[in-house]
Amino acid sequence: MIAPTVAWKASDNHAFGISPLLVVQQFEAYGLQPFDNAPGFPHMTGAPGSVTNNGTSTSTGVGVRIGYLGKLSDRVSVGVSYSPRIRMSRFDKYQGLFADGGRFDIPENYSMGINLRATPAVTLAFDYARINYAGVASVGNPSGPPVVPLGAANGSGFGWKNINVFKIGVQWQATPQWQLRAGLNLGQNPIRSDDVSFNIVAPGVMTTHYTLGATYAMAQQSELTFALTIAPSRSVTGPSMFNGFGMPAGNETIRMRQYGLGVQYAWKF
Q1: Which residue, 179, 183, 170, 168, is CA-closest to 230?
Q2: Shortest CA distance to 249 belongs to which of 196, 184, 177?
Q3: Residue 197 in contact with residue 240, Cβ under 8 Å?
Q4: Closest by CA position to 93, among listed 32, 49, 33, 34
């Protein structure tokens, strides 16, 4: 996602911005033969041969994000942003997997936040975000039962629900050279237990992220930033969709944990 931005400062304390969003997505999948009208699983897709093992497929789209930043006082600032749903071109090689002939749009999302300068050295940030996954057919359509042929306009999807995300962060200017940061991200799990089977390929079950970070000013014009993210293991268990095909598949569980480490060097000129 490339986002060139234009901002307008309406006054000393209020600014508006707009970013055209130039989006490129790529997708490839292997091993999904049971979803491609395999023996014992008839009518799973309306486009046989366009479900799996087709290499990389590319999708493009154009969207926009608008935002506002306001300084309410010397200690308090607020910000809001909004991005409508981005309509993407189809993944042609996987038009039998994703609903609406292989379309995988970017969901509508918006956020708002407040920044509080508690002391000259300590800054607190509180954010709220909303992601409307359910508005995108390939993401929000339930997976079944019954299974609606994959790739159809109303075809089965991942069954993701809309979610709310809450974030809190703190930054401390410990010394003239060191800035220390910590954060907590609390979100909702978009995946219901009834949709476990289809989400084996997209187990986005995470709800909690812990972050630590620091910036070290090596000189007046250069600085080094570190960031660490840890998301503890989270799982969802539910009945297998293959129970409906006469197979005693029982229950299935999807589970994920995440770790992230970032390093950034900046040169000011």
Answers
A1: 183
A2: 196
A3: yes
A4: 49
- The 3-state DSSP class for residue 47 equals coil
Q: Which regions of the chain does DSSP assign to beta strands (E)?
A: 6-11, 14-27, 57-71, 76-83, 108-117, 122-132, 163-173, 178-187, 208-219, 222-239, 251-267
Cβ contact 186:241 at 8 Å: no
Q: What is the pLDDT of residues 75-96, one digit of tens each?
A: 999 999 999 999 999 999 999 9
Who's near 39: CB < 8 A, 6+ residues apart? none
For 157-214, what is each residue's pLDDT tens digit? Answer: 999 999 999 999 999 999 999 999 999 999 999 999 989 988 988 888 999 999 999 9
> Is residue 107 a contact partner of residue 132, using CB atoms and an 8 Å limit?
yes
* In contact, 254 and 234? CB cutoff 8 Å: no
How far is residue 233 CA from its own chain's centroid?
Answer: 18
Buried b (16+ CB within 10 A) or exposed e, 72-96: eeeeebebebebbebebbbbebbbb
